[in-house]
EAL domain-containing protein
Amino acid sequence: AAKHHGRNEFRQFDDELEDVIQRRQHIERDLRCAIDTGKIELWFQPVVRLDTSEIIGFEALLRWFHSSHGPIAPPEIIEIAREIGMMDALTDTVFRSCCDLMARLTEAGHGNCRVAMNVSPRELENGRLDDLILDGLERRGLPASMFEIEITEEAPVDGDRVDEQLARIAHAGISIALDDFGTGFSTLASLKDRRINKVKIDQGFVRGLAQSPDDQLLVKAVMDIGKGLGIEITAEGVEAEADRHLLQELGCRAAQGYLFSKAVPMDKALELLMKEHVGPR
Ligand code: C2E
Ligand code: MG
Ligand code: MG
Ligand code: MG
């Protein structure tokens, strides 16, 4: 009986593995077309002032709903786009969408709102992002001060070409934020990099902050360092009022999280701006 059971389990494992492989094949097959036909969307999560809950910016986040496999997480979209040689096209899509929002914000009299685009270090290594951004902003008549790039140090970033690009982007007046700070390869040393003018504290330290004295200590330390170096700090993943309150007490001025709003489509983002604030205050 034990043997029989074992074989069934093996077959079940086999079936599950086959599902995983099939799903992956479907996604690989459909992603190219989804990018080409504009089915990949960018949604925007508000960044708010902690004291008033006013919207001061938006972060662009990839959204793709696959007709048979449902929502696909952004990191998987990116991984597959790279695999099938569509990363440049995807980056174009993301940047274009950010520009569309900036243009609409300007028209609506919200030119002081900032739009942030996530950039992975590998895109910088490929070496055409600075041209894409600087030429694009100029062509559309958008001020560099409205734009921000968020870099995740998921791998050590190195190389002259990366440095050169970051320098050009920063010199143009575009804000550079270090994303997911406190995880991966983001180190204290990266804060000495004068081109970085913002740090986003990873949600891992923020969620449940009120219940975690250790996290409070770490967040406070980051706030102090930021103050000393003249780096702005944004807290990610604020879900609870108690955490919002504590962050404010620790001197944090900007935040993002479900307490205020999830990412929403562009039209909805503009609607949210018409309100005085999102979430509690
Ligand atoms: P990230 O840049 O750190 O983005 C924040 C993630 O946390 C988003 O997940 C967002 O939906 C989620 N989030 C925001 N507030 C809360 C909250 O209060 N609670 C919780 N539990 N989660 C919250 P998402 O959209 O799944 O994105 C995951 C990651 O994928 C991003 O992390 C970013 O690294 C990457 N990504 C997304 N869009 C792009 C893109 O256009 N380009 C690149 N290169 N990477 C992207
Ligand atoms: Mg980000
Ligand atoms: Mg982050
Ligand atoms: Mg992240």
User: Anything to note?
Assistant: The chain has a mean pLDDT of 92. The CA atoms of residues 24 and 80 lie 9 Å apart. Residues 2-36 form the longest helix (35 residues).
